[in-house]
Design brief:
Layout: H1 6-11, H2 21-46, H3 59-66, H4 69-88, H5 94-135, E1 158-162, E2 165-168, H6 177-205, H7 218-240, H8 244-260, E3 268-269, H9 286-292, H10 295-314, E4 323-328, H11 332-349, H12 354-357, E5 358-363, H13 365-382, H14 393-399, H15 403-416, E6 421-424, E7 427-430, H16 433-444, H17 457-461, E8 467-474, E9 480-483, E10 508-510, H18 511-514, H19 525-532, E11 542-544, E12 550-553, H20 556-559, H21 563-572, H22 574-580, E13 584-590, H23 606-638, E14 644-650, H24 668-677, H25 681-695
Parallel strand pairs: 3-11, 4-5, 4-13, 5-8, 9-10, 13-14
Antiparallel strand pairs: 1-2, 6-7, 8-9, 8-12, 11-12
Amino acid sequence: MKMFGADAMFLAPEYLGNVNSISAAIMGIAIGVFIMCWNITTFILFSRHFTFLAATEFPFVKYCLNNSAIPLAFLIFFLIKGYQFAHYKELIRNVEIIFLLGGFLAGLSLILVVSFFYFFRADKTILRKLQPLFKNAADRIPHAESPSNMYSLIKSEYFLTTFFSFRRCRDVSHYSPQLMETIFKRHHFAAVMLVFFAIVFLILTGFFLENKFFQIPAAASMTIFFGILIGISGAVAYFLQSWSVPFLIVFLIFLNILFRSDWIDPRNKAYGLNYNDKKEWPAYNMQTINNMCRPENMEHDKQNMINILNKWKAKQNEEKPLLVVITTSGGGNRSAAFTVNVLQYLDSITAGDIMKKTFLITGASGGMIGATYFRELYLQKISGKNINLQNKKYIDNISEDLLNPTFSSFVARDVFAPGQNFSVGPYKYLKDRAYSFEMKLNANTGGILNHTLRDYIAYESNAVIPLIFYHSVITRDAKKVLISTQPLRFMMMPVRDTGISSIPDADAIDFTTFFAKQDPYNLRMLTTLRMNATFPVVLPSVWLPSQPIIDVMDGGLRDNYGVENSLRFISSMTDWIKENTRGVLMIQMRDRRGGGWENPYELKGIGDHTIKPVMLLQHNWAKMMEYFQNDMYSYFSMNSQFPIHRIIFNYSSSKEENTAALNFHLTQREKKDILASVGTEGNKNSFSKIIELLNATADSVKVK
């Protein structure tokens, strides 16, 4: 999980945009909650094996004290790792680290003090109510008649009374089992009530997540979530005992019945799309897709695209310009930041003309978030806004954390809080972690992406800004959903080879055509970006209103580098490109080095051998895609009727340990590393080649 940045989430928690003593204190509180839930649950499940505790003062506190070895070992390990990470990854000075440590310990101490204070009071109340039972002779039995069922899983002879003193366990066999059971049940109930209060707190928090104050660090959210899950398991064991497992099975069956009957629907929707009239939902089947791909439909959309190409050409300063296509890879915030960084340099060396010279942008996930943000900044600038496209604050904006509100919402909204609705136009949707993700992305980018597809139709139709093709992958059959302001039915299948009689099958659907009756142009741009960047688990898959229902995930599962989309577009427009341009310039931005040498799959232990069949494909998925797409490009360029140039920019770190993680959070060192990566020798050469190609004349261009 380190390559996905899990260590950064825990060791450098961010709150309100900063890693400070407050964020550390919240993390301390979260770990304190987890430790207490663990103690509560194990106390409920195993206290019957330590019957001597019933005769001590404050049994639960004594149990926690004697059960503290594992939590203490973890805390020591955590603090050591936390110091190393803060110092070397977040570049925090030692003085500031002391404050972080103080904040963490203060938060941890707070939750422990509050919890133990609660149990001190509970113990006194329990003791006061049960005192008469100890004096009742009926509750005392002779040792010789000690029941045979007083079996102990763990034999205890001594126990700690404090960290520095211990004593022998008291023999309580002279008390009846009924009295022992009563004492422990009272303590169990007090423990369950503490878990209940924590759940109520999370439910209340779910109503205020729009406020940044309640968007706690992502790791804290997940720690509290798992802690409460442990606590709930203890509560179920307390109330249902041997019926716990049957109850769980029946509960899951009941939830499934409610889901299949449409009584509950936790699935995420595409915000802006009309889900209301099921009778209007399109049929997702072979016949419908084939009808969309009829030659006359594909030719209609192709002619529409040629009209836009002609408008783009009219805005260029040469008779036969280079058709510039930008592709950018997925990779979370690292790819978004790297893409904006490269585009800023390209804008600088082309005197502000890179967006004007670019016709198409495509790709996946984080890279598309960065490219869309830069395009919007360009649109704002040519619309009269005072914007300096080279300002590094835009890289800071797109690099800001997206995980905190997402995971806070997952814990507080998706799991515990009752449903809350919001509206996009006339349509209502349920607030969940996807909604929180979009709201944070909107805030990070200053609100300039809060538009719908409809808002960009005129700009793209008149070639004022580059077109963008977004795509997601249908989980049902791995087909792509192509999303654009323009109809793309000519992109739904590979270009047909006239020498082959068979017609290729469609492997994609055009979003706006397929969902024509669901108000597709009302789709939010923020939602479009999320559908293109639906990282598994972090964000929910998006289900679309079709029959049968289809749901889509991250576009990087099918085309992480944008090469497939761009080559299909170029091949579809071959005749126009040959007649009207001096070739194609494909600028590719990748969040990793080429060649597949980064992050090799290594077996480090016996456990890795066990999971190798499962993890091997996942670990090497992007590398296999790279090899295949390199072959695809090679075949295409060798047989192309016009020059095609591919210039690649790679994000690569000077040191492997500094490489930015693949997630929606970046450390300070990772941000610096991404900024510096455009200055590598390879990337400098790529900038030089682009200037050379853009300044070349049609006669001087050679096929590359």
